[in-house]
Amino acid sequence: MDFPIKVYRIAEHSMEPTLSNGDYVLVSSWFSGIGIGDVVVLKYPGRKFYIVKRVRRVRENMLDLRGDNPSKSQDSRHFGMIHRNSVVGKVLLKL
Fold first, then answer.
1. CB crowding 21-47: b at 16 or more within 10 Å, else e
2. pLDDT at residue 47 is higher than 90
3. Structural domains of the chain, with CATH
4. pTM greater than 0.85
């Protein structure tokens, strides 16, 4: 059984100034809902690495995700809306 709380290291600049490259975040895979403003971790579509984005809009089970730093972010503007099941966890706090 996977432990529901994990630590992820931010390896990009897309969430600055909220989260910076090199920051660590505590992430929970146990959550009941995803709402606008939540910061989530997901697998990058078609790749093997994880990214962190903020939920901008929710439509049924689809999420529009954006980085806080649009000029440095690969997000839903590039890969489209993402199914809720692609989210591996919600960021609880910055460590």
1. eebebebeeeeeeeeeebbbbbeeeee
2. no
3. 5-94 (2.10.109.10)
4. yes
